[in-house]
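pls read this protein:
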Amino acid sequence: MADSPDQSLRSRKTRDRALILPLVGVMLLLPPFAAVFEVEGRLFGLPVTWVYVFAVWAVLIAGAALIAGRLSEPEGAHDASAAEDKGPE
């Protein structure tokens, strides 16, 4: 069965997000961005720089998990589940 244009576009957008996520992560961890958080203060008893690095890391993991879930769905599964949620009309 051929993919509809909407499914093809959704799949392409998901692949694009999967490509961009590591690039954004690297950019956020580069010294010019990370240096913004090099302050003397502490947050939750930890240096602010550590909190920043681990927060970026956690967001990257969560984003990767979401994208991986969408990439592993069979084509059209999202549309089928949406149709089931609507119920009979």
User: Anything to note?
Assistant: The helical segments are 5-29, 31-34, 48-72, 77-86.
